Amino acid sequence: MSQAFAVPSRMAVTDEAILKIKEMITSGRLSPGSRLPPEKELSESLGLSRSSLREAVKALEVIRVLDVRRGDGTYVTSLEPRLLLEALSFVIDLHDDRSVLEIFGVRRILEPAAARLAATRITDEKLDELDRLMDQTSADDGIEALMQHDLTFHQTIVESCGNDYLAQLIESISSRTVRARIWRGLTQQGSADRTIAEHRAILGALRDHDGELAGAHALTHVAGIESWLRTAADATA
Fold first, then answer.
1. Same domain, 152 and 59
2. Residue 93's pLDDT is what?
3. 190 lies in the same domain as 131
């Protein structure tokens, strides 16, 4: 059979259905929270078979674009970044320990950007929260308490950057690095004091609303952990 008369694969037909539903959402024909037309009506209006439409709906349900409610209908989700990036968190969790260095490399790119944005947008209330967090933290605290401090500190900053997609993306990949950070806290002498000092430097730049300085301190902080992890991994290997 010549290529011109090749029958499209099932996957290609499903991809076409996905693209057509996506176009309905991006064009505004379907908005967050709205209900899709009945399957027969939708398949006819889009020129698709009901089977390919059904496969497309299943795929879009997995990545949280659609919400299939049995006995009720199919709805567009809220399309919030938190929902749409859940699939990324799942994929990252499947990676092995060797990928942690690459994840830190991504953090090294994204977190300084978030800090720069947060410096111009963070509220006095959030700055006061970070001040209280720093006052309640000591290098003598146990590793679990220090790790919770670290997670809360970074989460507060990314939440203040004013970009929900960036914040959710950082949180999605940051959770995968917790074990490496605990490992550093248990094995590297002075790591707790160093982390607290670096956090104070970042907070000082945020309070001065100095985006470039906040980004530079965030870069130094993340890159320091990445550098230690690379050395430790090489030594272990």
1. no
2. 52
3. yes
